[in-house]
Amino acid sequence: MEEGTGVLEPSRSCKKLIGPEGPNEELEGNDGVLRIVETFLRLLPIGLSVAALVIMIKNSQENEYGSVSYTDLSAFRYLVHANGICAGYSLFSAVIVALPRLSTMPGAWTFFLLDQVLTYIILAAGAASAEVLYLAEKGNMATTWSSACSSFVPFCHKVTASTAITFVVVVCYVLLSLISSYKLFSKYDAPAVSNPAKGVDIAAFHG
After folding, report:
1. Which of 60, 89, 148, 206 has the fewest Cβ atoms within 10 angstroms?
2. pLDDT at 189 (0 to 100)
3. Which pLDDT tens digit goes with each residue over 180-193?
4. Alpha carbon distance, N-terminus to C-terminus of the chain
5. Strand partners, 176
6. Closest CA to 87 of 118, 49, 121, 116
7. Phi, psi at residue 53, to the nearest 5°?
8. Beta bridge partners of 84
């Protein structure tokens, strides 16, 4: 029995030494991989948004049927502004995420909220431009609108390219929203809400 005890005790002490460090090292490794993926997803929309913006800004055509420019339609102007905002925010957030620092709850909440807002902004821009493009290509028989893209083919091609790139940016921001949500709700508890009637603090939601 003493020999058995002598053999078991060292193994128990090894578990005590190894046990706490193993999960911590694994978590640090996961955080490192997640930071690399997040940084890449924040850098990628910069080039994509600038490309979509430049294509749309330079999009104008004049022929025997008349002239058309992106400034003639509010949906295309909104797409330009939305992509400019996304490019600026992506650059700023990528720099912040890439810097080694301790994560804080206010910072996590800030990224979570801003990522959500930017996702909806760029999604609305892509959806509005896609709707206008569809009407320009197909027309609308109910309102006797004929297809405009048959007369302005290069213009519509550039609009299609800019809108498609914008939807790629949407995908990037959807993934970023998931990452920022995971980083926030996996590390921090729900904020407490004070109940003045009973004088107690309760959790806003349960994880």
Report:
1. 206
2. 62
3. 998 888 776 655 55
4. 47
5. none
6. 49
7. -65, -50
8. none
